[in-house]
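Before a colleague's protein record goes any further, I have to sign it off. Thanks in advance; the entry in question is below:
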Amino acid sequence: MMILATEASRPYFQIVEQVKYAAASGAMRAGDVLPGIRPLAERVRVNRNTVAKAYAELENQGIVESHPGKGCFLTENHSPYKKQIRQELLSESIDAAIVQAHHFQIEEEEFLRLTRQRFREFKKSNAGSTSQANKE
C-alpha cells in the first residue's frame, strides 16, 4: 500500500520511488499490475493527473509498461537501473552495519573478515536449498 508524506517531496516523485523500491525489493514482480490511476489517486488523495504523471515517468524509465484498457504492469527489467536501485538499498543496510560496528569498536579489518565469513556461510547454507528448488 502506498503512503505519501504530505510534507515531503512532490507526490508523483514519491509514487515513482515507492514503485521502484517495491520492484527492487521483490515486493512486486514482473507482470504485477499497478493500481489503477483513479483508485490510487483516491486512496492517496492526490489528483489523477499526479498518478498519471508518475506512471508516465515509470514507463519512460522502463520500469512499467502501459496496456490501454488493461493497466500498467511491472516489466521484466534487465536494465542496470534496477541493479543500481538494489545496490542503493543494500548500501543503506551496509551503512547501518558500519555504524553499528563503529559503536561496538570493531575495526575495519575485523568487520570485513566477519562479513566475508558470514557471506561464505550464507552461500553454503543456500547451496542446498537452491539445488533443491531447481529439482522441483
